[in-house]
Amino acid sequence: MAERFDEDALHAVGVRIDAEHPEGIIFDPHQPQLRVTDLSAVRGDGIFETMLAVEGHVRKFTAHLQRLQRSAQITEIPLPPDSSWRAAVDLGLDEFRTRGGLPDELAVRITASRGVDGEPASDDPAFSGTYWVLLTPVSSKVKDSRGRPISVTLLDRGYDSTAPQRAPWLLLGAKTLSYAVNMAALRWAAAHGHDDVVFTSSDDLVLEGPVSSLLLGHRTADGQVHLKTPSAEAGILPGTTQATIFRAAEQAGWQTSSGPVTVAELHAAEFLWLTGSVKLVSPIARIDDHEVRVDAELTNSLLDFLSQEG
Amino acid sequence: MAERFDEDALHAVGVRIDAEHPEGIIFDPHQPQLRVTDLSAVRGDGIFETMLAVEGHVRKFTAHLQRLQRSAQITEIPLPPDSSWRAAVDLGLDEFRTRGGLPDELAVRITASRGVDGEPASDDPAFSGTYWVLLTPVSSKVKDSRGRPISVTLLDRGYDSTAPQRAPWLLLGAKTLSYAVNMAALRWAAAHGHDDVVFTSSDDLVLEGPVSSLLLGHRTADGQVHLKTPSAEAGILPGTTQATIFRAAEQAGWQTSSGPVTVAELHAAEFLWLTGSVKLVSPIARIDDHEVRVDAELTNSLLDFLSQEG
Questions:
Q1: pLDDT at position A224, please?
Q2: Domains of chain A (ranges plus CATH)?
Q3: A35 to chain B: which residues are within 8 Å by CB?
């Protein structure tokens, strides 16, 4: 476990947002910040986004804030205004500069907890919960992993694909802190010799990874590339990285689509990738016992699409 | 929200367990204790139990510790020895005595977090996570609610009843901190005029409440009482309160059983209750639009069974 964090993690910066500090105030992430009664720690009752800042620029900040708002609506967790999040992130970036150097890449995690039950932090609903930003230098290990082929295992997420529509209390479109199952799936994969997971529905649709989106690709007869991703209706978190890739791909003349993807379709796919905001793009070279073709040139195109952004 | 906590909550006592304090050390729950990088707050990645202490005696402590151990095995979260939990709870009880008075009833929540990723709190695996006990006086509101008839709504939990067997990574037998869905279900119920929820599987079996177990009861032809509870195989947390009731009921000559319970069987049940460690027993008087008979005498018998214990 220890090797998952290198010395860079020791240099993380925290920024808290509250009614008295709507533009944020710096804290030391090595010091306790949360009460044990904070609902984030009591019941995983909060929402979050993880973004990538490159040379001090946060990629697709607006898309992440929009997804955070969607999570907030679903979970009924009140949020500070977007301007607070942006100011708090800026404050954190400045803190790095003041300390003598902005790392080339930072993982920027923004978290909104429902707060302490029965004790709103402020009478202003926009600041009634607990809000913080954590900026952590991206380790060389994570940087090196980008673009590298991975092996995944297909794991049933237990829900059928109609669950999100019929049971909104399952919060399937929200990115909540209740991630124990996602982490258990990743542990299961590691214990069985895989790098990552692709979740399936109980009715055999392909969904997403525990912390990533899935892309399928094939070269069409005319030499074009077609990218496809499972549709969000099945209870998938809409991927901001996937969306950025699709936008750039369309501009490059590629075809893109989203829709239901069956397990059979997954196995028939020519190329597959997992995408995420910090790990960016990982080509899938194996699904359980099935080899999958890997095309380094295509993977580099996807990585290029992401670096064009903003 | 504010009325859910009365002034008693201000007098909670916290006890932390770590390698330097294997028998616990007192902390003030109003002061920050957790780093924002603690996995309890990052990903709801921890496990817990909530117990009831009456006049300084923790009810069914052993059963809760056993269930915590089961959660720990499923989630691979290392735990301090039982003796640490017991000593820490004793320390918390003593703190109340020192302060001038042990409340007649305390909710005692024990929590084990996986800790901070990549930074184990100790080289000793038994203390590598973050561990704490929170003792909170039970409010008069909760006390008054015991035995009172409630209205519940049936909500689909999305999983079918075979999910626990085929997909252990769903952690269905573990009591984890990832409770956002349970809380969302309770909010849904409240918004629709109900007090609580009974979860169903997608294949129409009846499961449990978000924070309680379900009991079915009927009087048999010979005047006996038969209690039934849904079987744990369907992905239910085995209820410690339900188990205590069943043990005492059997000693009183009642019949008990556990097995699959269909929605039709639920609607045909003569009596229904939700049971939990702190709220004890709540007779169900309504399931959505269906009235259910309530028998105050039977409910009192169940409450008596619980007060006999220990």
A1: 85
A2: 2-141 (3.30.470.10), 146-308 (3.20.10.10)
A3: 29-34
CB burial class (10 A; 0-12, 13-18, 19+) of residue A28? exposed
B254 three-class SS: coil
Which residues contact residue B260 at a Cβ distance below 8 angstroms, ignoring those fewer than 6 apart?
Answer: B161, B205, B230, B231, B234
Binned at pLDDT 50, 70 and 90, residue B5 comes out as: very low
- Written in H, E and C, the secondary structure of B257-271 is EEECCEHHHHHHCCE
Q: How far apart are CA A224 and CA B245, in angstroms?
A: 67
- Residue A189 Cα, gap to closest chain B Cα (Å): 10
**Contact between A52 and A106 (Cβ < 8 Å):** yes
Q: Which of A12, A36, A177 sits opposite B29 (nearest CB)?
A: A36
Residue ranges of chain A with pLDDT lower than 70?
1-10, 309-310
Q: What is the ipTM of this complex?
A: 0.94
d(CA A126, CA A22): 10
Q: B292: which 2 tokens?
A: 């259910």
Chain A residues close to B4, C-beta within 8 Å: 117-118
Using CB atoms, which residue from A12, A167, A180 is nearest to B171?
A: A180
B167-223, pLDDT tens digit by residue?
A: 999 999 899 999 999 999 999 999 999 999 999 999 999 999 999 999 999 998 887
Q: CA angle, A23 as apex, B29 and A6 as ends, to 5°?
A: 70
